[in-house]
Amino acid sequence: MLSLMALAFILMYAKGATDLMFFTVSMGLAGFMLYGPDSLISGVGAIDVGSKKGALVAAGIINGTGSIGPIFQEEIIGWLYTKYDQSIVPVLILLLSMALVSAALTFYLWWKSKLGKAKL
What we know:
By secondary structure, this protein is an all-alpha fold.
């Protein structure tokens, strides 16, 4: 899903600046592809990382961190937009970079679990 989210950002960069409908559809696709990993990390990931007693604490920390993100997101995206003469390209590069890093880290964790070395 993270790879498809990265693809949605690439498509948004390629054609989204010229076609409002294409921008809207690619933004919706990116959000849809983000929902699955977010649900897994918030629910199953918290139970997997924490013990039975610590799962609630782990879920709270994960959701709390996720709630802090939009506070910084608004400031960083606004700063990038004004710093680069109201160009959306740096913002899309940032979004694409974060999606690719997340996909790479998820692949790494999957690969480690396949080798039986998932303990961190």
